[in-house]
Amino acid sequence: MRTEAVKTFSSAQTARWAGHRAQRREEFIKAAITAIREHGPGVSVAAMAAAAGVTKPVLYRYFTDRADLQRAVSERAAQLLLHRLLPELAGEREPVEHIRAIVQAFLAAAEDEPQLWHFVVHNPGGEREPAEVVAHSLALVARTLTAVLDDRLRARGADASGAEAFAYGLVGMVYTAGDWWLQQRTMSREALTDYLTTIILGGLAGLFEHRAHGDSTDNTGNTRDDNT
Q: Are 57 and 11 part of one and the same domain?
């Protein structure tokens, strides 16, 4: 009886500590983002810790190293981007309006948070390769877009097998073009939105029309007629 009571107490204590740890990590991630906004993408871990009101040793009790903190911040950045995109993904509208709204929201999110974007994408002073951090963040966005696109294609009776590939391609293209645009600014955001919308809409139209024409491609890459 006493042994069971001890086990129950130990489990409760472990659960409380896990909850406390998760809460503190959340607070430190928010503080890190605040420091990035204030000091720029090359901000030091010491400055991030100071923004949270703690020292570096305390911060590292909750993150294994800078790379772990970098990953946590990049995940939060992806969530912030999704927060901007989800309202545009929801609801019914004409395809061209839908695509334009998604592209516009993506570019606006990057433009509104240039320091955070540069910290995640170019990873100054980080130990983790930028490509790894970016790929992880973009995958979070692409998976959400895949689910939405898959539903829309199936609702139209179209082949949804390419939804994931199209979603990753769309996110990758807008991300690459957006990163170039933030650095070069050779055109307005509206102009870039128009260019990207035209390109994406052409590909999306092909997906919707593919099944309507009764053509599909087999595993060998050869085209077959589904009506035969």
A: yes
